[in-house]
């Protein structure tokens, strides 16, 4: 049976855009050409909009707290996919999901059976949520040392794998393009764990050069500006390879390289992180670390249900770490 994901891949748009177009969302700002392409692909694939199936009577209610705004989430397939995983598993288990964006939840968390918090939160925010509802699991944030259950991605091994690939191909001058993040309340600035893994791995080989690291935002525009700056500043010393901390940054960076007449991958190879659906459709197609975002969401709900809702006894905080998959495409020397 054709799914929204199938249509998104064929139409080269996000699953969020396909869903909103097929549901006739009048608030969506997208060209008529894009809408027509989505409808044409849906028709060609014989897509039939399915009715929502309630597989069992609701057994409870969970709150889903998201550090992104609703608009930001629609522009970021990473967090959209995590949420989709949570909602699919909630439907299977019979939970009603109530969504709260940023800091709008307040005391409402007291009225649910458990809480899943997606994204980065300050210590104060973590403690506030826990004071409102002790049945709490964080997704995409390492809160183990703070005493809270969490589900995260394995950064160390995945980044080690992609850096070793560069090194094995003789590319020992390696740069990184990364975004700067803050907790939802802007109280704490966050050092991206990918940057820490990048620095530690290359330092062990005596290959880390801070002049090859550029910090901006997690957007294509920022990736473009960071790479332009690197090209202008480093000139002939421009690294042979770059690791971009997400797909958007990589797409912007490759645009800057193309405009400068720099060959990808022969002069500069590019690898990104997340491997959203757009990665395979740009030119050259983008090598990327695939993150199992839907599985992150599903496992977070299973953790919440098993150790907090079905069994309310206290337990040591635990962290589930998911492996990744390194997908090689045309933006690297393979």
TrEMBL record:
**Residue intervals passing through the bilayer:** none
Quote the Pfam families the UniProt record gives: LacI (PF00356), Peripla_BP_3 (PF13377)
Q: What is this protein called?
A: Galactose operon repressor
The protein's matches in SMART domains, at most eight in alphabetical order, are given as: HTH_LACI
Q: Is the Chloroplast keyword given for this protein?
A: no
Which Gene3D superfamilies does the entry link to? 3.40.50.2300, lambda repressor-like DNA-binding domains
> Which ranges carry the HTH lacI-type domain?
2-56
Q: Which UniProt keywords apply?
A: DNA-binding, Transcription, Transcription regulation
SUPFAM superfamilies in alphabetical order: lambda repressor-like DNA-binding domains (SSF47413), Periplasmic binding protein-like I (SSF53822)
The protein's matches in InterPro entries, at most eight in alphabetical order, are given as:
HTH_LacI (IPR000843), LacI/GalR-like_sensor (IPR046335), Lambda_DNA-bd_dom_sf (IPR010982), Peripla_BP_I (IPR028082)
Q: Mind listing the GO molecular function terms for this protein?
A: DNA-binding transcription factor activity; transcription cis-regulatory region binding
Q: Which PANTHER family match?
A: HTH-TYPE TRANSCRIPTIONAL REGULATOR EBGR, LACI-RELATED TRANSCRIPTIONAL REPRESSOR
């Amino acid at each position: 049976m054709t799914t929204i994901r199938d249509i998104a891949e064929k139409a080269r748009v996000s699953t969020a855009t396909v869903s909103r177009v097929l549901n006739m969302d009048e608030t969506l700002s997208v060209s008529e050409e894009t809408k027509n392409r989505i409808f044409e692909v849906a028709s060609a694939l014989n897509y039939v909009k399915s009715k929502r199936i309630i597989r069992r009577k609701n057994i409870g209610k969970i709150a889903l707290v998201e550090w992104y705004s609703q608009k930001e989430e629609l522009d970021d397939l990473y967090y959209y996919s995590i949420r989709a995983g949570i909602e699919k598993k909630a439907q299977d288990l019979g939970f009603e999901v109530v969504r709260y964006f940023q800091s709008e939840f307040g005391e409402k968390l007291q009225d649910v059976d458990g809480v899943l918090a997606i994204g980065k939160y300050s210590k104060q925010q973590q403690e506030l949520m826990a004071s409102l509802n002790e049945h709490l699991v964080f997704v995409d944030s390492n809160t183990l040392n703070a005493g809270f259950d969490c589900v995260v991605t394995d950064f160390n091994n995945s980044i080690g794998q992609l850096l070793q690939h560069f090194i094995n191909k003789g590319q020992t001058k390696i740069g990184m393009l990364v975004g700067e993040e803050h907790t939802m309340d802007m109280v704490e600035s966050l050092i991206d764990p990918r940057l820490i893994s990048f620095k530690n791995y290359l330092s062990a080989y005596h290959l880390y050069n801070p002049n090859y690291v550029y910090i901006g935002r997690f957007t294509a525009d920022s990736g473009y500006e960071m790479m332009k700056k690197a090209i202008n500043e480093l000139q002939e010393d421009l690294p042979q390879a770059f690791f971009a901390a997400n797909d958007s940054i990589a797409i912007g960076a490759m645009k800057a390289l193309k405009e400068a007449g720099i060959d990808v991958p022969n002069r500069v190879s590019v690898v990104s992180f997340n491997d959203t659906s757009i990665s395979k459709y740009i030119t050259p197609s983008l090598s990327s670390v695939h993150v199992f975002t839907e599985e992150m969401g599903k496992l977070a709900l299973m953790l919440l249900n098993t150790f907090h809702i079905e069994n309310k006894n206290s337990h040591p905080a635990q962290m589930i770490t998911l492996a990744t998959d390194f997908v090689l495409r045309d933006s690297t020397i393979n």
